[in-house]
Amino acid sequence: MSQNCRILAFANQKGGVGKTSASHSMVAGLTMKGYKVLAVDADPQGNLSYTMGADLEAPGVYELMRGVCNPKDAVQKTMQGDLISGSLLLSGADMEFNDTGREYILSEALEAFLPLYDYIVIDSPPQLGILTINVLTAAHDIVIPMGADTYSIIGLSQLFATIGKVRKRCNPGLNISGLLMARHNSRTVLGRDLKDTIEEKAQLLGTTVFKSIIREGVAVKEAQTGQESLFTTAPNSNVSMDYMGFVDEYLRGRVA
Fold it and tell me: CA–CA separation, 198 vs 226, rounded Å?
């Protein structure tokens, strides 16, 4: 157990950038390295919960944020580790959570788990609503997965503006660990050009791009379909090695 739990969030308001795959791989990778990890699925789609084999009808993030369940009852012990699941009930969060201080609901709810885990890894929804604000307010570190496409780059400025507001009003210590390039194909001219553009954009925004680049690979979808870890189903695949390299790179940055 740790008294120095680190909360790591994966966030990007654009869908389809590999956010859940990165979250899941981080949970699995940290667990394989012996860390005590809690996964938190703050996405109403519940994809991380499904992939980890959770009971989607059990109490989860929604009930925890509503305060209608004991914190320990929100944690599921899955074959892949501990998880607080997401559900469609979270889709009404912007209308439902409207009290003063609503930005701090998740942060305050997770306080009970800080002495119990080394890392809490949060998968956030693909929009900049109150759920994402709650995730950013709770997090110590944020990783921004990036698809190799123009729309991912366009949305970066808006995301960074939101991060700036959260830092100013709610969480001044929020650290941007970096941008993670996912689903990348370096064999195409477009892929190489977009890589250069993302690196330039990161520099302008005052952050960096992880050296680890996640290549496109069917092994990711196969692992998700089988509700298993990528490192279990295809440990020698390119994408598996890429994600483990990313986990190692994140950890090196933590101790640098």
Answer: 32
Residue 2: pLDDT band with limits 50, 70, 90:
very low
220/28 Cα distance (integer angstroms): 13
Q: What is the pLDDT of residues 113-159, one digit of tens each?
A: 999 999 999 999 988 899 999 999 999 999 999 887 777 777 788 88
> Is the C-alpha dihedral spanning 163, 167, 171, 175 positive or negative?
positive
How far from chain centre, in Å, is Cα 88?
18
Average pLDDT of 181-197? 69
Global confidence as pTM:
0.93
78 in Cβ contact with 39 (< 8 Å): no
Contact call for residues 220 and 229 (beta carbons, < 8 A): no
User: What would the DSSP string read from start to end of 183-247?
Assistant: SB-TTSHHHHHHHHHHHHHHHHTT--B-S---B--HHHHHHHHTTS-HHHH-TTSHHHHHHHHHH
CATH number at residue 189: 3.40.50.300
Query: Which is more confidently placed, 96 or 35?
Result: 35
CA distance 239 to 250: 16
CA–centroid distance for 20 within its chain? 6
Angle, in degrees to the nearest 10, between helices 150-169 and 130-138? 60
Q: Give the pLDDT mean for 1-23.
A: 85
Residue 1 domain-assigned? Answer: no
Q: How many domains is the chain partitioned into structurally?
A: 1
CB crowding 87-101: b at 16 or more within 10 Å, else e: bebbbebeeebeeee
Question: Does residue 46 lie in a domain region?
Answer: yes
**Structure tokens that stand for 187 in this block:** 């064999």
